[in-house]
Design brief:
The complex is a heterodimer of chains A (306) and B (370). In chain A, 70% of the residues lie in helices and 1% in strands. Chain A is built from 14 helices and 2 strands. In chain A, helix 1 (7-32) packs antiparallel against helix 10 (190-216), helix 1 packs antiparallel against helix 12 (243-262) and helix 11 runs parallel beside helix 14. The longest helix of chain A has 27 residues, at 190-216. Chain B is mainly alpha-helical and 370 residues long. Chain B has helices at 3-32, 37-49, 52-77, 85-101, 108-138, 142-161, 192-196, 202-219, 221-231, 233-238, 243-270, 281-291, 296-320, 326-339, 343-360. The chains are: A mainly alpha (306), B mainly alpha (370).
Chain lengths: 306, 370
């Protein structure tokens, strides 16, 4: 029980949830418009790499963040073009992006920065402790010295929910993911809405990657995402393709890994705790816990008669 | 051209074009950072096939890729995407190694068979029974369930050896299981360079497996029904095929081959469960099946191709100084171009449109192309 009173456990929970929640919400945007996205892992890597590089070159981590978002948007745009315009298999494309990203980031790291890794003088994003909630018992633990990206993530959870479920554009994006033919008949531009969803997804995934490289650290390492893009995919599904659900699932998975960090050397083996996100997702998909159902047109290319 | 030749050419066209595109883009990347692409690719080729040792290493690396690729191809034939072969491979490895260092009183051939069967069954359960049942009865998409089960399987294998008192860990500081008994190991091919490069008779298991899969898919009712389910599920159901049953079977056989690959790799090369979790054969094998367009013999060629990229990549890095991760970039591009099969017709249509534009502008068409 004393473990639960350890402030680090809770700060760690929120910190570890952030690089899961951002790509999970990104994936939600993509899949809500009907494009299956398993490329979060690769886009995160790209984001992480460009964030560090530009933070080092310009001396400003904010420009690093901007570069990460731009790179994420670009790679997502290529993915979207092949998925939407060329009607390619989206799962295979996602794999291609993941393999390519793992290769190109390692390749660029070695050719640009050599084999010693990124320079230690790279600037990272600021951390904030809000004085007003610092001494509030539980809340204060959560928010102790968190990166600005953590706060940005929390804002994005709310904004994404509002955007997807309370704006006209959000409704249109969801319509395209459920029944593109009907949406097309009503005069919506199916392709453009899908591009929008995928590219928003790319930007958010890149933010998740940037959080790893210039949020908690100030360096890039080969394959530093270490499967987080796939856990984010699990969080998106476990969260039933909604921003709040994705965030909740990310918090749960973040709590599990933070707990296993705090318990290291103790009772429960870390490998078993690390299984939790995947076990819960299988249970959710098979209807044993809740029931996660994907958007109806998810993964099906929409062909225009031209 | 006879129809058969034409279909073969068409079948080969896309994979070859995709690989060529990737190689050309790779060459541009290499040249842009100031290296000579010919030297770089030359060192890659030499590293993969330059002498008997490297040929042995390439073939040895191809064994798991071919076996897993065959399994993934079967699932693809049934219209199913088994993306979780990596985990099926590892649970197969766990089962085979466990049998491999128990039952030491058994004769060698029986011990080997038992260990491989254990690996196959474990892989089949992991890939087939759980995601298959979930797909057939509650409609859970197999891409997600096999992927999630895969991570559970990989973590299970890590759990078996990583903690100090892990179930399969042998006492000591290194996270590894006991060695499997020597008579349960697959023998190396009896040539010195092949022994050094750890090329076991597993390569023949892979070749035989390709023939078995070809026979199964093309010459049996079972294969016909699997392909029917893959072509058109509704028509298959209407024709009286038990779709749910074939879904479970196809994913199960798919996992069975991944489990077999785990077993063959453990009995033939690793001889114990150790920290080799970065090998990622299960993911590369998906690319193998894609590039082979699910043809069993294509899986052999594609498996050797990707194993060559991996062994040759190391030599390339040492000789030319270009990072070995270039081979991952190439693999990613190959997958992209295989997926984007509409790209070539699109380009052709674009060229045709522009060609018409040029004609209208009164520009002469050059020489050979009428």
């Amino acid at each position: 029980m004393s473990v639960l009173l350890n402030p680090q456990l809770w700060a760690g929970t929120l910190s570890l949830a952030t690089p899961l929640a951002l790509p999970a919400i990104g994936g939600t945007f993509s899949e809500r418009t009907g494009v299956v996205n398993i490329a979060m892992e690769g886009i995160m890597l790209i984001g992480a790499f460009f964030a560090v590089s530009f933070s080092y070159w310009t001396g400003s981590p904010w420009l690093g963040l901007l570069a990460a978002m731009t790179a994420g948007a670009l790679i997502a745009w290529v993915f979207a073009w092949a998925a939407i315009r060329l009607a390619s298999n989206q799962v295979v494309l996602g794999m291609a992006v993941n393999i390519f990203a793992a290769g190109i980031t390692a390749f660029l790291l070695n050719t640009i920065f050599g084999y010693n890794g990124t320079p230690p003088s790279t600037a990272s994003l600021a951390t904030i402790t809000i004085p007003a909630i610092k001494s509030v018992p539980i809340l204060g633990w959560f928010f102790y010295q968190q990166s600005v990206l953590v706060y940005l993530m929390l804002v994005l959870v709310v904004v994404s929910h509002w955007f997807l479920f309370h704006t006209r554009l959000g409704l249109r994006m969801r319509a395209v993911g459920e029944n593109p033919l009907a949406a097309d008949t009503l005069g919506l531009n199916v392709w453009r809405l899908r591009y929008t969803g995928v590219i928003i997804g790319g930007v958010l995934s890149a933010l998740g990657g940037a959080y790893l490289s210039i949020g908690i650290l100030n360096s890039f390492d080969v394959n530093m995402t270490n499967g987080r893009g796939y856990i984010a995919l699990a969080a998106m599904i476990f969260g039933k393709w909604t921003p709040f659900g994705s965030f909740g699932a990310a918090l749960l998975f973040g709590f599990a890994s933070s707990l296993s960090n705090s318990l290291q050397g103790n009772a429960i083996p870390t490998d078993l705790i690390a299984m939790l996100p995947y076990v819960l997702t299988v249970l959710a998909l098979t209807g044993i816990i809740g029931r996660s159902v994907a958007p109806a047109a998810d993964g099906i290319p929409y062909k225009l008669d031209r | 051209m006879t129809p058969v030749v034409r279909s073969v050419v068409r079948g080969l066209g896309l994979p070859i074009l995709a690989s060529l595109f990737a190689i050309v883009i790779g060459a541009i990347v290499v040249a842009s950072i100031g290296f000579n692409p010919v030297t770089v690719y030359g060192s890659l080729l030499f590293g993969a096939f330059g002498n008997l040792f490297s040929i042995g290493a390439t073939l040895s690396g191809a064994v798991p890729l071919i076996l897993i690729g065959l399994g993934i191809a079967i699932a693809f034939k049934a219209g199913l995407f088994n993306i979780g072969a990596e985990g099926q491979y590892w649970v197969g490895a766990i089962a085979s190694v466990w049998v491999g260092y128990h039952f030491n009183s058994l004769p060698g051939w029986l011990h080997i068979s038992l260990a491989l069967v254990a690996g196959m069954l474990a892989g089949a359960v992991w890939g087939g029974v759980i995601p298959g049942l979930a797909k057939a009865y509650v409609g859970a998409h197999e891409v997600i369930t096999t992927m999630m089960m895969s991570y559970i399987g990989i973590l299970l294998a890590q759990y078996m050896i990583e903690e100090p008192h892990a179930p399969m860990r042998q006492p000591g500081y290194i996270p590894e299981s006991p060695m499997i008994s020597s008579h349960a190991q697959l023998p190396f091919l009896p040539i010195k360079a092949f022994v050094q490069s750890q090329l076991s008779i597993g390569i023949f298991i892979a070749f035989i497996a390709a023939v078995v899969v070809w026979f199964l898919l093309q010459k049996t009712t079972f294969g016909f029904q699997i392909r029917t389910v893959g072509y058109n599920q509704r028509a298959a159901k209407y024709a009286g095929v038990h779709v749910a049953w074939y879904t479970i079977l196809a994913l199960g056989i798919s996992g069975l081959f991944a489990g077999l690959a785990g077993g063959v790799q453990m009995l033939g090369v690793a001889h114990q469960l150790n920290d080799s979790f970065a090998s990622q054969y299960g993911y590369t094998a998906i690319v193998v099946a894609l590039l082979a367009r699910n043809n069993p013999f294509g899986c052999i060629i594609a498996g050797i191709f990707f194993a060559a990229l991996s062994t040759g990549g190391q030599t390339m890095q040492q000789v030319s100084g270009v990072p070995a991760s270039l081979t991952n970039v190439l693999t990613g591009l190959v997958v992209f171009f295989v997926a984007a099969e509409q790209l070539i017709p699109e380009i052709r249509a674009w060229v045709r449109r522009n060609g018409k534009g040029r004609k209208a502008a009164g520009i002469q068409e050059g020489g050979k192309i009428a």
